[in-house]
Amino acid sequence: MKYECDMIADLLPLYNDGACSDSSIKVIEEHLAECPKCSEMLTKLKDNHIDDEIIKEKEEVIESQAKFFKRKSAVAGSIIASVFAVPILICLIVDLCNGHGLSWFFIVLAAMFIPASLIVVPLMMPKNKMFTTMIAFTGSVLLLLGVCAIYSRGDWYPVAASSVLFGLTVLFAPFIACRRPVNTYLKNFKGLTVMAACTITFCLMMLCIGISLHDMSFYGRAFAISGPFIAIAWIVFAIIRYMPGNGLMKAGVSVMVLGLFSFFINLIIEGLIRIGNDPTAVYTYSNGSVPVMAVGVSVGAILFIIGFFVRRAKMNK
To answer: Per-residue pLDDT tens for 167-182?
Structure first.
């Protein structure tokens, strides 16, 4: 035989998968015609029965373990839920014995939903754990605020609820947008959706604050102060998301925009406030820090130039 069996044995898996070159196939077939041992080895490679059995056993083991952990999670969730029920039951008994009604009972009951949403919900949900947990936590916090507002007879709930909703949206929206089942619907619009959700909840919060103050002039001042910051956030997002170029170029443009924004922000806010109060008003020029703007524009320009040459070097390779 012209070639060693060890060398042919190394090539047989590739030959069996059809991944050999024509010259290698010719050498292997010539060897197989003379070597019964290598021919038998090839026959065993072509027998997929053992592989199928291994795959079947693996799937059965995975399924069995999944059912086991699901049962354990359900048991653990039930035990934890029972533990949470203890203070609720105690509060119910105390309220009834003291004749105070059920005010504290409902407050404690609503409060128990918060830890339950963070501990019990992930254990009980078989799929989409993060999405369900975040939604349950948000709902439980809003529920607790609502119960407290009802029993304290306060009109502060819209402001508190909208503020909490805005904060939780800023915190949770990026994670929810990237997790199932939301990411399957958003596809390439995750960032745009997160920015829109944060903007909408912020405007809702400002609307609720204005209603609680019973002062229509609040909206003009609120828009003058917060509007430019919302606009710059959208501008930076558009640069990062849609501007062509690498990360250094996008970072450079963003830093330059923020540097210019820091210089003109006082002028913008002052102008919006004065124009909103009196369209005929004449306002004086008020600017920000020149050194901050100079540093921002300089650093941004350097980052952009470095990114430009890095991108050019990669394109020339």
So the answer is: 999 999 998 888 888 8
How many H-runs (helices) and E-runs (strands) does the chain carry? 12, 0
How does DSSP classify residue 187?
Answer: G
Residue range 128-142: average pLDDT? 89
Alpha carbon of 140 to those of 42, 113, 149: distances in Å? 63, 6, 14
Burial 116-130 (b: 16+ CB within 10 A, else e): bbebbbebbbeeeee
How many whole angstroms from its chain centre is CA 213?
Answer: 34
pLDDT tens digits, one per residue of 265-312: 888 877 777 765 655 545 454 556 788 889 999 999 999 999 999 988
For residue 289, give the nearest of 310, 260, 268 by alpha carbon: 260
Question: For tokens 């009604």, what's the residue?
Answer: 101
* Cβ contact 87:70 at 8 Å: no
Q: What are the pLDDT digits (tens) for 217-262? A: 888 888 888 999 999 999 999 999 999 989 999 999 999 999 999 8
Q: Which two tokens stand for residue 37?
A: 């041992």
Is residue 214 left, alpha or beta, with left meaning phi > 0 and alpha meaning psi from -120 to 50?
left
- Report DSSP state, residue 20: S
Please state, in angstroms and rounded to a whole number, the distance separating the CA atoms of residues 125 and 33. Answer: 59
Using N-to-C axis directions, what is the helix angle for 36-46 and 22-34, rounded to 10°?
A: 120
**How far apart, in whole angstroms, are the C-alpha atoms of residue 126 and residue 73?**
9
Collapsing DSSP states into helix, strand and coil, what is residue 193? helix
Output the six-digit token pair for 218.
């609040």
Residue 180's SS3 state is: coil
Torsional sign, CA 17, 19, 25, 27: negative
Q: What is the pTM for the complete model shown?
A: 0.68
